[in-house]
Amino acid sequence: MSGDSKRGERIMMRRIRVTTGSISGAHRDARSRRQRLAISAATLLAAAGIAGTTLTAAPAAQADVASLYPLYTWWNPDRGDNFTTGNRNDENSATAAGYLPIRKEAFVYETQQPGTVPLHLFWSNSRQDNFSTATQAGIDSAYSAGYTHIGIQGYINTSQEPGTRPLYQFWSESRQDNIVAVDQTTIDSAYSAGYVLVRVEGYAPYY
């Protein structure tokens, strides 16, 4: 082999070693990067796991949305009685007893909210009268007159809040009948039929 050939071979071998070394270094760099990425990913997953545990331990806040139900006025011409209902059970009772739906007066809260009181339903068998009241004065007068407590129809405000109207209590001596009214049409009808305003029972949502 000539001297030129030997020199060429030595140069070629150095190039191969340099190239091989570069490839090996690249592999080491890539492996190192993969290890660093794996460590970073593991750290992030661990942090996410901790965060997830923390979030699970603290339940999300739920919005307390007040549920409303229509307050309807019913009329039974045979009994000469007005009946105000604030739930499905009372509506079923009104229908079964032959009452006719007149109008929606307002709404009641289905569950008690801050600043509200129960709207109680009473019944007098001797007067054939349904009586709704939310004040202590109304409750006392119902028991004094021999009425029986039936249940709670819903809840109304004790003070006037935005979006509420007064729930008026009327009484007719000739009919021996109580009626609560919010809607102006019912109020006018009560006065026209000779009913007397007794008190404001509270304040009902009106929309």
Strand fraction: 25-35%
Judged by helices, strands and strand pairing, the structural class is alpha+beta
Q: How many domains in all?
A: 2
Radius of gyration: 41 Å
Average pLDDT, rounded to a whole number, is 80
Reading the helices and strands in chain order gives HEEHEEEHEEEHE
Oligomer: single chain
Considering DSSP H and I runs of 4 or more, what fraction of the residues is helical?
Answer: 25-40%
Q: Largest beta sheet, briefly?
A: 3 strands, antiparallel
Number of helices: 4
Low-confidence stretches: 11-27, 34-63
Biggest sheet, spatial arrangement of strands: 2-1-3
Q: What is the molecular shape? A: globular
Number of strands: 9
Distance between the termini: 109 Å
Note down, in words, how this protein is organized.
The protein has 207 residues and is an alpha+beta fold. It folds into two domains: 1-62; 68-205, no CATH class. Helices cover 40% and strands 35% of the residues. It is built from four helices and nine strands; from the N terminus they run H-E-E-H-E-E-E-H-E-E-E-H-E. The protein has helices at residues 3-57, 88-96, 136-144, 184-192, and strands spanning 68-76, 81-85, 100-109, 116-124, 129-133, 148-157, 164-172, 177-181, 196-205. The strands form three sheets. It has a three-stranded antiparallel beta sheet, with helices on one face. Strand 4 (116-124) and strand 5 form a beta hairpin. The longest helix is centred in the first third of the chain and has 55 residues, at 3-57. It starts with a helix and ends with a strand. The model is unreliable at 11-27 and 34-63 (pLDDT under 50).
